[in-house]
Amino acid sequence: MTRRRSACTVASVTAATALLAGACGNGDGNPAGPSPWPPAATTRTSPPPATATAPGDLAAATAEVETNWERFFHPRTPIKERIALLKDGEQLAPMVAAFAAHPRYGQAEAAVEQVVFATSTTADVTYTLTLRGWPLPTAVGNAVQQNGTWKVSVPTFCALAQAAGSIALAARCR
C-alpha cells in the first residue's frame, strides 16, 4: 500500500470517527436530536470486472471482504472472532477488546458499500458506520488477505482506535 493511499485511508476514517465521537447522545441511550443528514439507504454495487491484479474469484473475494468487515464491526461479534478478522489481530488483542468495550465505538456497525481490489491481496473498502441506526458519512478503509482470509487492515483499525481517544494504542498504531 502506498503512503498516499494509507494517508487517504486515515483521513477518511478519521473524518467518519470524529462524527461518531459527536454522536454519543444525550445520556438516555438515544442519539441527541434529529440526524443532521437524511439517512441514506445502503446499496451495494457490483464488483468491478476482474483484472490481472484482482483475486481469481472476484465475486467470492468481494463477498468475503463484505461479510468479514461487517462482522468485525458488529457489536455482538465476540472479541475472539474480531481478533481473527483483523490482520495480525493477536498482536492487537488488547486494543480490539478496548474498542469493543468503548461506549460509542463498541456499538457501531458497518455496512459495506463497495470493495475495489488494488491487488490480489489488498482492497479498498467503502463503508458506512452507524450508531444505533444513525448513519455517519461514508468512509474508506482497507482490507488485506492474510493466511487465505480477508481481514480489516491494521492502519484502518488503528485510525478508528486513535479517534476514540480513550483506547491505549499498540506501538504499531503510534
UniProtKB/TrEMBL annotation:
Transmembrane segment boundaries: none
Domain Low molecular weight antigen MTB12-like C-terminal residues, every copy: 59-165
Domain of life per record: Bacteria
PROSITE patterns named in the record: PROKAR_LIPOPROTEIN (PS51257)
Keyword DNA repair: no
InterPro entries linked to this entry: Mtb12-like_C
Comp. bias regions, Low complexity: 40-55
Keyword annotations from UniProtKB, A to Z: Signal
Family assignment from sequence similarity: Belongs to the MTB12 family.
Protein name, entry field: Low molecular weight antigen MTB12-like C-terminal domain-containing protein
Protein species of origin: Streptomyces scabichelini
